TrEMBL record:
Residues 307-441 form the GGDEF domain. This is GGDEF domain-containing protein. PANTHER family: BIOFILM ARCHITECTURE MAINTENANCE PROTEIN MBAA, DIGUANYLATE CYCLASE DGCP. It comes from Streptomyces canarius. Residues 151-221 form the PAS domain. Residues 225-277 form the PAC domain. Residues 450-712 form the EAL domain.
């Protein structure tokens, strides 16, 4: 239980509290004041006991003073505050029952003894600390001496045993010390190397900043630098190194020595050069490859004002035939021989030949006068291919198509120049090959546009960018609308509306013509059904029919018949509402396998029209075996009829074709009717139907409905 506030223990607690408050501010301790007070309580209790003891115990009082030192109360103020507190409060709180004068005398003696014990303990502690410091200093001195010795030994071991070269020189460049690795790298003796000066090691391959960095270091303006540097060996070879030079300062921070660390990179450099060569040269021919050629071309295009360039892009004609017939080994030998011949054509300064891959080569010439030089280079290249090349006992005639690009530097990128050369080369190849062509910006633009359209075709169909316009087919006898030809258009996001002549050849080339043609067929047949439903109550001359063009690719596609049947059944349209137009050129020399799908469609009731009749030079007798029911006469035969009187020769030709067609039970449709005189003359000649701008331009399906409605209602 806790003591009463006014009892002996309570008074002792108040004494301790007063003492702790006086002493805590000048005590170096991690305790809180409350914890510190608890630490003083036993000492206060001991003083209270000594105050009331029968005999005076000086040693016990000294022990209390020494305990204060043990509690880290070592500040000069600590003893004074303790004595003041004991003098003022010890008798007051701990000696109420005794004679006051004797107790005060006893308190004074206790204070003297406490002070003596405090001083003695403080002195012993100070001596102990001084001794500990002295011992620590001696130990540290020994450790430093040992460390210095070990450090010097380690430095010597590192210096002598290092795999990299190490050299020390003064700030004047005099070599003072070198290790064995450096001696081996240079192939010199230590006496010879130590007699050299750093400035003697200038090499032609030094980077421009090498000696500027050296001067900055020896003048104290930089602490170190790192460069790749070459040195001449006594045997005439070159030593390549990674060189790091550092500045060594004295204790005052003043520059004193320079330390060089050298790593021998000669073999690595030779390997890198070899790898660089292999990475930039063609493994088969040894010519620069595409990568190196692009570097040289970009450098030429980045030349200053007034500089020009000329480029020849060569592709061998018929090289695939050599590979296919004689094998790839023979093809490789042919390429090597061609490369040697081309290399001999480009020997002037600023000229180079490279192999881009396969059988494609390029030759580059640079300088101010490339307008003339590139033509001469192209002529040398073409002449170099004239002589046959002997492969496995066979003399092979080698021909090539050459595209030439010439112009000022700085106007185009390397990719643009090479693309222009590539396009020009293919233009030469398309013209028959074994020739050269000069780049034409307009032809390049057309080719680039064609390429862009080709790549955009697949997604255009998915995005619904195609639509169909319809041009009426008019009966020449009574002027009634009998149907329409479906003409597909492309609403291109950048180029606007494109006619079929712009994209149908591209679709045929890529094979997209099959899904595109299927889409056109289905959309057109759906429109035919819509027209028939609209005209169901009208007195038209007959049901409107839709004409859809078939490309040669569609004609040979195995799914043509089934696709057509499926679409007709799905839309609920009878076969007689459909006419498929096939160009005459697609059927010239057609065998029975090619004609079989058309015969099956004709047997179903689908009309087959022979489009552009008269342009394919077909044998008229072949008309008997073709499953066609309509001849579409090409507009070239009727252009002479646009004015009155008509060209008599054209009249005779058309009259003969119409007579022949009717004798074979074929109807005749004429394209490109543009004047009334032309239409009247064709009616007189017996043509059945016609289409052209005279009647209507191609347009939306609503326009055809309106024309047919007007015709049906009079």
């Amino acid at each position: 239980m806790s003591a009463e506030p006014d009892g002996p223990e309570g008074r002792l607690r108040r004494l301790t509290t007063i003492w702790s408050r006086a002493l805590f501010p000048v005590t170096s301790t991690s305790l809180t004041r409350t914890e510190f007070e608890e630490q003083l309580l036993p000492l206060a209790r001991r003083l209270s006991e000594l105050l009331r003891a029968r005999s005076f115990d000086a040693d016990a009082a000294k022990a209390v003073g020494a305990a204060l030192v043990g509690a880290h109360c070592t500040d000069p103020e600590a003893l004074a505050r303790t004595l003041d507190c004991v003098d003022a409060y010890l008798v007051l709180y701990c000696g109420e029952d005794g004679p006051q004068d004797e107790l005060r005398i006893r308190s004074s003696r206790l204070q003297h003894a406490m002070a003596a014990g405090y001083a003695q303990a403080l002195r012993e502690r100070t001596l102990a600390e001084q001794e500990a410091i002295a011992q620590a200093a001696l130990r540290a001195q020994g450790v430093v001496a040992q460390a210095l010795h070990a450090s010097e030994a380690r430095f010597r071991a590192v210096f002598e045993g290092a795999a990299i070269g190490i050299g020390i020189a003064d700030l004047d460049g005099n070599v003072l010390q070198v290790n064995k690795a450096l001696l081996r790298m240079f192939g010199l003796s230590e006496q010879t190397l130590r007699g050299r000066r750093v400035q003697d090691w200038v090499h032609p391959e030094d980077a421009p900043q090498t000696w500027r960095l050296y001067d900055e270091l020896v003048h104290g303006d930089r602490e170190h630098y790192h460069v790749e540097k070459a040195f001449n060996r006594p045997d005439g070879t070159v030593l390549w190194t990674n060189l790091t030079v550092s500045l060594l300062r004295d204790a005052d921070g003043d520059p004193q020595y320079q330390l060089a660390l050298m790593e021998d990179t000669t073999e690595r450099r030779l390997l890198n050069l070899r790898l660089r060569y292999e990475a930039t040269h063609d493994a088969l021919t040894g010519l620069p490859n595409r990568s190196l050629f692009f570097e040289r071309l970009e450098k030429a295009l980045g030349a200053g004002e007034g500089q020009r360039f000329g480029l020849c892009y060569l592709d061998l004609d018929g090289f695939k035939t050599v590979n296919d017939s004689l094998g790839h080994a023979a093809g490789d030998r042919l390429l090597v021989e061609v490369a040697d011949r081309l290399q001999s054509c480009a020997t002037a300064p600023g000229e180079m030949v490279a192999r881009l891959g396969g059988d494609e080569f390029v030759a580059l010439t640079t300088g101010p006068g490339t307008e003339r030089k590139v033509d001469e280079l192209a002529e040398r290249i073409m002449n170099a291919l004239v002589t046959p090349i002997s492969i496995d006992g066979r003399d092979l005639m080698v021909r090539g198509s050459l595209g030439i690009v010439e112009g000022p530097a700085g106007e185009r990128t390397a990719a643009e120049v090479l693309r222009s050369a590539d396009i020009t080369m293919y233009r030469a190849k398309s013209a028959g090959g074994n020739r050269s062509e000069l780049a034409d910006p307009e032809a390049d633009a057309r080719a680039i546009t064609r390429h862009g359209l080709t790549t955009a075709l697949p997604t255009a169909l998915e995005r619904g960018e195609f639509f169909i316009e319809y041009q009426p087919l008019v009966h020449l006898g009574d002027g009634s609308v009998r149907g329409a030809e479906a003409l597909v258009r492309w609403l291109h996001p950048q180029h606007g509306v494109l006619g079929p002549d712009r994209f149908i050849p591209l679709a045929e080339h890529t094979g997209l013509i099959v899904p595109l043609g299927r889409w056109v067929l289905e959309e057109s047949i759906r429109q035919a059904r819509a027209w028939r439903e609209l005209h169901g109550g009208q007195k038209a001359a007959g049901p409107l029919r839709i004409n859809v063009n078939l490309s040669p690719c569609q004609l040979s596609h195995p799914g043509l018949v089934q696709d057509t049947v499926d679409i007709l059944e799905r839309t609920g349209v009878t076969p007689d509402a459909l006419c498929l137009e096939v160009t005459e050129s697609a059927l010239i020399g057609a065998d029975d396998d090619l004609l079989k799908p058309l015969r099956r469609l004709a047997e179903m009731g689908v009309d087959i029209a022979l489009d552009d009749f008269g342009t394919g030079y077909s044998n008229l007798a072949n008309l008997r075996r073709l499953p066609v029911s309509i001849l579409k006469l090409d507009r070239s035969f009727t252009q002479g009829m646009q004015q009155f009187p008509a060209d008599p020769v054209d009249l005779k030709i058309v009259e003969g074709i119409v007579s022949l067609a009717h004798s074979l039970d074929l109807a005749v449709t004429v394209e490109g009717v543009e004047t009334g005189a032309q239409a009247e003359q064709l009616r007189i000649l017996g043509c059945d139907t016609a289409q052209g701008w005279y009647y209507a331009r191609p347009g939306p399906p609503e326009r055809l409905h309106d024309l047919a409605l007007v015709d049906a209602t009079g």
